[in-house]
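User: Run a structure prediction on this.
Assistant: Running it now.
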Amino acid sequence: RIRNQIILTEKSLTVGNKDMAFVHAYIPHSVIFPSVKDRLNNISSQSVTQLESLLTDLPISIKAGESVELQGTLQSDLRLIEQILDSISKQEVGQDVLSNKTVVANIVVFLLRDAEQSYRLSNAVTTTNQQQDDKSSNQQFSKVDYENSQGLVNISSSNYEKIGNSLDDRRRQEIDAFFSQLENSIVQKINIEIISHLVTAIERDLAEYLSS
């Protein structure tokens, strides 16, 4: 979850959208990190202290500056945050990913559930003419939640690839197809029920994989 926000922060900075970069950088500091700090401390307290400091400073730095020097510092801090997250992840899951396939599969599922919830909150579904006429049902589009949903699916897919080759051909091809459909459906702003169906389908296949 933290990694997703860091990736989205960097993307926003790359396209020059400082406001969106600030929002994405603020979420880990204010929402995600406080909820997982105790757990992370049990893995690596030294790394967590450094991570907390970087996450606290990041939105402040984005808000503060335009200088070339500051932009360079931001990029350096983003790389360092990702390196710390990599280190913590390796300590949690271990070098042998397949021996912890249950952990990885659960990460995939939980991130997809987060993606589904973010998509629901984004109100991204294309509004029908009837809904456009009914102002009470025309809720405001949330770009932050929409980008979160896309990013979480991408992160989930990356984690799935760590164990994908250990699945049988039929199940791997099926999950690959579901991920492709999910990514395309979010881009096309398809109805939330279809998004939910695809998330459930991936979760079901992974559960069958773990029980086999």
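Residues 18-64 form the longest helix (47 residues).
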